[in-house]
Write a structure and sequence with these properties.
With 394 residues, the chain is an alpha/beta fold. It folds into two domains: 199 residues, 3-Layer(aba) Sandwich (Rossmann fold), CATH 3.40.50.150; 134 residues, OB fold (Dihydrolipoamide Acetyltransferase, E2P). Helix content is 28%, strand content 27%. Strand 9 and strand 10 form a beta hairpin.
């Protein structure tokens, strides 16, 4: 659609007014069907040399806008000037785009940011500066239960005194729902949006969200797929590809255990492997919340798991299946070696990086048939795409 000459281009295309400056979106100026076509073509091109028996059309995100359940908004600005609160400027780590809205999070984001910004001005609180390492306010992290409506606000600061009651009063006066509010202190130099828990100002410190019929407890630092409704689609595909009736489902690179727990009813036992202890704590807590006593999670690097004879013996059980959702670099060499030297009859690869996926498929194709390739769009208006691949032992 082309705008009329007297029409604002951004308005005609329904583009966020911050697009182009803000680093949150990259392709919001492209129609959504065009974004999908580009991502599908990318995955198709990279996986075609591996002769998939079936290539399915890309699954769109259920929500094109307001799909993210977590955003980290940074403070910034010049000394003695009103604080800025928003996202990093595109290509500038030390500059902030002051946001009046965010179409990735929710329609209430603008009112929430305005209330926090006004509170910081009223309380005369300085923002933290990355170069001088002086100041107080660092981040506001917002987490929302897309299927429950619950909202968490986490304020991240440097060391100092924070008037939490007045912050909650400002949010309430703006009509912004806040079910739980926490204060965290990052006293280090690293620019991360979390820190030591310092105070619980409201609620229980967690919110709940649902994936299908499973309830997940989400804490300020929980590892949880950021597109809730998209994750339901993605995990449903993983379950379809794996089938039912497995003795053991290995969930390798399991993060907070969402895939394994979502599919826990399909296997007699679920074993999650994850190197991050905080994520494993989340997985174990959610297993308790869901009553999934047959799901166990281990704080173990995937490469270490792949070389441990005791684990390899369980891995090679004829009733075992697996799902692997590695980070962007793809499968570790020891994990690829495990798959080749001790093959599993069926497994599903969930990839967030089509290039790494193509490399791994090249290494694994001598033993495994690429049965189905399914791209899934989890991040509209960005170049990122997830791919679900079913592989069966030849």
């Amino acid at each position: 659609m082309k705008p009329r000459p007297d029409t604002c281009y951004h308005c005609a295309m329904n583009i966020c007014p911050h697009f182009g400056a803000c680093g949150g979106c990259a392709t919001q100026d492209q129609a959504y069907d065009r974004q999908l076509a580009h991502k599908e073509t990318l995955v198709r091109t990279l996986t075609a040399p591996h002769a998939p028996e079936e290539f399915r059309p890309i699954v769109p995100s259920p929500d094109v806008f307001y799909y993210r359940n977590k955003m980290e908004f940074a403070f910034g600005g010049l000394k003695d000037a009103p604080p800025l609160l928003g996202l990093r400027q595109k290509g500038k780590f030390d500059r902030i785009v002051d946001l009046s809205e965010c179409r990735l999070l929710s329609p209430e984001a603008g009112a929430l940011l305005a209330a926090v910004r006004g509170w910081a001005v009223a309380e005369k609180l300085p923002t933290y500066h990355l170069k001088s390492h002086k100041g107080l306010l660092r981040y506001v992290v917002v987490r929302e239960g897309k299927n429950t409506g619950e909202r968490m606000v986490a304020l991240v600061t440097a060391e100092g005194e924070i008037p939490g009651e007045s912050l909650l009063a400002a949010l309430d006066a703006a009509g912004v729902r806040v079910d739980t509010a926490v204060w965290m202190v990052n006293a280090g130099l690293s620019d991360v949006a979390y820190g030591e828990a310092r105070a619980l100002w409201r609620g229980k410190g967690t919110i709940d969200d649902r994936l299908g019929d499973k309830t997940f407890r989400v804490s300020p630092r929980s590892f949880f797929q950021s597109n809730t409704r998209g994750a339901e689609k993605l995990y449903g595909l993983v379950g379809e590809f794996l089938g039912e009736g497995a003795d053991t489902l290995f969930d390798v690179y399991c993060g907070g255990g969402a895939i394994g727990l979502f599919l826990a009813d399909r296997a007699k036992r679920v074993v999650g492997i994850e190197s991050n202890p905080a994520a494993v704590d989340d997985a174990r807590e959610n297993a308790v919340v869901q009553g999934a006593r047959h799901a166990v999670f281990h704080a173990l690097d995937a490469a270490t798991f792949a070389k441990d004879p005791a684990w390899v013996a369980q891995w090679t059980d004829p009733g075992a299946v697996a799902v692997m959702d590695p980070p962007r670099p793809g499968l570790q060499p020891d994990v690829r070696r495990l798959l080749l030297e001790h093959p599993v009859r069926r497994w599903v690869y969930v990839s967030c990086n089509p290039e790494a996926l193509a490399r791994d498929l090249s290494d694994l194709q001598p033993l495994y048939a690429v049965k189905t390739v399914q791209p899934v769009d989890m991040f509209p208006h960005t170049p990122h795409v997830e791919t679900v691949v079913r592989l069966d032992l030849k």
